[in-house]
Write a structure and sequence with these properties.
It is a single chain. By secondary structure, the chain is of the alpha+beta class. The chain has 2 domains: 90 residues, no CATH class; 231 residues, 2-Layer Sandwich (BirA Bifunctional Protein, domain 2), CATH 3.30.930. It is 41% helix and 18% strand. It is built from 11 helices and 9 strands. Strands 1-4-5-9-8-7-6 form a 7-stranded mixed sheet, sandwiched between helices. A two-stranded antiparallel sheet has the order 2-3. A hairpin with a 5-residue loop joins strand 6 and strand 7. Bound molecules: phenylalanine. Phenylalanine binds next to strand 8 and strand 9.
């Protein structure tokens, strides 16, 4: 019996060591330690017939064998568990030292950026920043700006007409009129905003774009004042001294009216494709406020005069960043917009 016991212990321990899965271990446990029909149980059954002193000695040996087998099972089980854990950690490996994937904060549209820069500059020179409606009436968009109904200048700007005499403003100039209606003189104001023209869209034309209107009314305003403010504006926008020149231009609400050119920033004036080899780039229309416009807003042109300009904000952004297709600006395409964040 003692030999049987020793053999059982030896065999069991080596089977446990050789087991390749937890299932196999469980089968060994049942076969050896199982209460009913287990090999140890069978041996202890036979103990009843032994003499008391033999029974006591054998009982001790039996308990030792059981403990040895149990501990072998336990440590082999622990080995399987730790192997399973290692395998799982390998499979689900996570590098906690990596930086997070990153949440991109929003950024201002390039048009908004340039608009805010110009607003800051003009505010610092005593100008108010005004807003006006995008749906306008004929009076503010045309008549009060010295463009009566049959005036050919109405055709210069293809208008989106709404019903009831309303229209989408074709320029920011109606805000000049609203400024004069509302505020006392002297008046210094700018008015950035969206304007609309009924045009077919291509790389350089959009039905919707941005302008920034400016107006100053005071005593003895001269073309020299106009040039000073325009030079200051463009130096700020392009971060380099700007050289400008005036050519005659026609707009019913200014007299004299001008087209203001800037010396080409690409070639410095020697001539290139951007300035069509003239050394100058046409940038913004401007002029001294037509006395008729002042009169229509109940301002006495013998006491007051002023200048006005209409900056194409969209055009300016395109020049500053060398953007060759106007449609990109309102495309909402993040590949384009992310370049300005
Ligand atoms: N409102 C004119 C336009 O959009 C531009 C302009 C503004 C011209 C102010 C002169 C003075 O065409």
């Amino acid at each position: 019996m003692e030999e049987n016991l020793a053999e059982l212990e030896r065999d069991s321990v080596s089977a446990i060591a050789a087991a390749t899965s937890p299932d196999e271990l469980e089968a060994i446990r049942v076969r050896v330690l199982g209460r009913k029909g287990g090999a140890l149980a069978e041996i202890s059954k036979g103990m009843g017939k032994l003499a008391p002193e033999d029974r006591a000695r054998l009982g001790k040996l039996l308990n030792q064998a059981k403990a040895a087998i149990e501990s072998a099972l336990e440590s082999r089980t622990a080995e399987f568990e730790s192997a399973a854990l290692t395998a799982r950690l390998d499979a689900e490996w996570l590098d906690l030292t990596l930086p997070p994937a990153g949440v991109k904060p929003g950024a201002l549209h390039p048009l908004t950026q340039i608009q805010q820069e110009i607003e800051d500059l003009f505010r610092s020179m005593g100008f108010a920043v005004l807003d006006g409606p995008e749906v306008e009436d004929e009076f503010h968009n045309f008549d009060a700006l010295n463009i009566p109904p049959d005036h050919p200048a109405r055709d210069m700007q293809d208008t989106f007409w709404l019903t009831g005499g309303w229209l989408l403003r074709t320029h920011t100039s109606p805000v000049q009129v609203r400024g004069m209606e509302r505020y006392p003189l002297p008046l210094r104001m700018i008015a950035p905003g969206r304007v609309f023209r009924n045009e077919s869209v291509d790389a350089s034309h959009e039905h919707t774009f941005y302008q920034l209107e400016g107006m100053m009314i005071d005593r003895d305003v001269s073309v020299g004042n106009l040039i000073y403010f325009m030079q200051t504006l463009l130096t700020e926008v392009f971060h380099q001294p700007a050289t400008v020149r005036l050519r005659p231009g026609f707009f019913p609400f200014v007299e004299p009216g001008f087209e203001l050119d800037i010396r080409c920033l690409i070639c410095g004036g020697s001539g290139c494709a951007v300035c069509k080899h003239s050394g100058w780039v046409e940038l913004l229309p401007c002029g001294l406020v037509n006395p008729n416009v002042l009169r229509m807003s109940n301002i006495d042109p013998d006491k007051w005069n002023g200048f006005a300009f209409g900056l194409g904000l969209t055009r300016l952004v395109m020049m500053r960043y060398a953007i060759n297709d106007i449609r990109l600006l309102q495309s909402g395409d993040l590949r384009f917009l992310n370049q300005f964040s």
